[in-house]
Amino acid sequence: MRVIPYRVYDGAENMRRDEELFDEAITSSCKEPVLRLYGWEHPTLTIGRNQSCDGIDEEFCREKKIQIIRRITGGRAVLHDRELTYCFVVPVDFLRDGSCVIKSYREISEALVLGFAEMGVEVSFIDNKKVSAKNPYCMAISSGADLSVSGRKFIGSAQCRKRGYILQHGSIVFDVDSSLVSGIFGEDEGKESVITLSAIKPKLASDIEFVCRNIISGFEKKFGTYV
User: Fold this and answer.
1) Which of 148, 156, 207, 227 is 20 to 30 A (C-alpha) from 51?
2) Which one of 87, 138, 160, 212 is the catalytic residue?
């Protein structure tokens, strides 16, 4: 497994690098998975590939200089700010259940479960919940592929598939600025459903290098035997 070390970029550059990594794997017929870890220079709102901006206050985003970037992956809007983001690119046939979307989500996310276990944090797959189809905020909703701590959403992920490859990226939330969430989405709908790393283990939220090392270790444990 190839690892691209943690770096911080602006929103447009982060999404460009994810897409470039995906395309490079496809054009080179890469046989091994690639893991990239990164952060965000400024608060950025990414929206899903087919998502409209209904329910998003674009004027508020302009006032606060929050970039709005469209992702190549599906899902709903994510406010990226105080977080660690991972991007994992892998051939479909590298995975045990790569052809099944939900099973591949879980197979990849099991690496995150292993990484946080090394940090003493018990992360589990969240139970499916009924959600409002009108809610544009990703962290306010849950699916069977999301990860939770104490029943509250902790890590949300999204996928894109193309020509036999999968890109999955997701947000490990360190802290949330609820005023930005309220300003963008009009209410604190996701506030009670989300748990942050600073609420789980404050010391971890202040040590990005330590978290990165353990996330990498989790991916190596999960996928190292395949390499």
Assistant:
1) 148
2) 138
